[in-house]
Amino acid sequence: MTETSLRDAAMASKAWPFEEARAILKRYEAGPPDKGHVLFETGYGPSGLPHIGTFGEVLRTTMVRRAFEVISDIPTRLICFSDDMDGMRKVPGNVPQQDMLREHLQKPLTSVPDPFGTHDSFGDHNNAMLRRFLDTFGFEYEFYSATEFYKSGKFDEILLRAADRYDALMKVMLKSLREERQQTYSIFLPIHPETGRVLYVPIKHVDAAEGTVTFDDEDGREWTLQVTGGNVKLQWKPDFGARWAALGVDFEMYGKDHSTNTPIYDAICEILGAPAPEHFTYELFLDENGQKISKSSGNGISIDEWLTYASTESLSYFMFGKPKTAKRLYFDVIPKAVDEYHQQLRAYATQDTAQRLANPVYHIHGHNVPASTMVVSFAMLLNLASVSGAEDKDKLWVYINRYAPEASPEKNPDLDQAAGFAIRYYADFVKPTRVFRIPTEQERAAMEELSACLVDEAKALDVIARKNAQEGKDDPLPEVNWRDEEFLQSIVFAIGKTHGFDPLRAWFSGLYEVLLGASQGPRFGGFIALYGIEETRALIAEALDGKLAAA
């Protein structure tokens, strides 16, 4: 594929990263930006530890950046900006030395001592965790600290411009506030020269010529401070837009909870002399009960929890899909994400350019999409763990090798990894919820015939023939192959039809509930091929004797 043909396909692609990339490119139809690059930004509030939303935001921004690099030769940069000069408004509940931290409330996070004792400040500690977090996933980015940005003078020009255009900026902000808040609001938050705390106090006077603000502190003492040099910071909404203007940001995405503030951010940026960036608003994740996931409440699922049961690529796959649709982010979505990710890997090898550019795995891996070696699905591994009682992946490999003799942990590393994940997932989520039941008389008769057909070629072909006759078909009978999951599936399907299950899914539900203790399960022919003929017959016998339900 030539670079030109790839670019042409990307310009027509409906994949959302390419749609966003084209919007960014449109900004520079007349020529590349004066700064010489297109700037992508993500923001991080280091009041707590990095979480799954941070991962999603950086990952999705990286996907847009990669898409832009396909359609344009303009260089790109990605900045991860930490708002570490924010005052610590409350003490996080998951850190040590709570009493010590309470003594430093309202101080900038980079002025609060590190309760872990490993860094110069709490903000530095959380920044280091963020960077380690991003490095673990291989993101390419530049790290910016708000404290360093304010104190080093990098923000001086925009702060002086904010003082000069104070009235216009305040007009934007006051329209968005309640009357009571309007009386005390200012875009500037002074840092008290003695206590070091971020002050939320009225500003009495802004001197644009001198670049100063005058205010009374909480004790009624009057102070005048330069707006430069880290003496003041901007309130968070003005800070958002001012940062865009100062850096020349071209693209930033954020959650739906920010969407009502977008006109404010844009207006601030434009008043300060820069065009507003392109922005992408994504829907928020929901917990198991459909409630918004919150850092403070701890509902939902964390990065570490996901990675206990599945690979980073499966999480990336989940993040790619439908970012403008609210999605449940809970443990039960993991198996589906794993299997769909590998389905897309297998599909990629046979797709044309347009299809590949729409495939999530392209946006996860770029031009280096790996081949899947998952010859057994994650869902099937879970069911295998269930019926075999396996407590380690070595036992699963005994069944896997009987099903796929050529497979090995060395040749199939993603399958080997998934087998270990499946053992953990089964133990924590499947085993505690299994509920077996006694079969109905209809199910009992069907399962008895299924067991008999699995060791009798004539009976197996007869039930398939009876199913064909019932449907008025004259199809040739399949070739007998007891290791072929399609042949085994045809037997299972035929038994369900000839025993009058209507709808047919009631037959499969019965198999899952009676044999596996679950409401859903794998393609049953594939399960038999993997678990084994004799093992499946033994499982059916236990179920029909009532042993599974009794246990």
The CATH homologous superfamily of the largest domain is termed HUPs
Q: Predict the CATH topology of the largest domain.
A: Rossmann fold
Question: Count the strands?
Answer: 12
Report strand order across the widest sheet. 3-2-1-9-10
Q: What is the share of helical residues?
A: 40-55%
Q: What amount of the residues lies in strands? A: 5-15%
Structural class category: alpha/beta
How much is the radius of gyration in Å?
A: 30 Å
CATH class category label of the largest domain:
Alpha Beta
Query: Count of DSSP helices?
Result: 26
Identify the overall geometry. Answer: elongated
* CATH-scheme architecture of the largest domain: 3-Layer(aba) Sandwich
Q: Number of folding domains?
A: 4
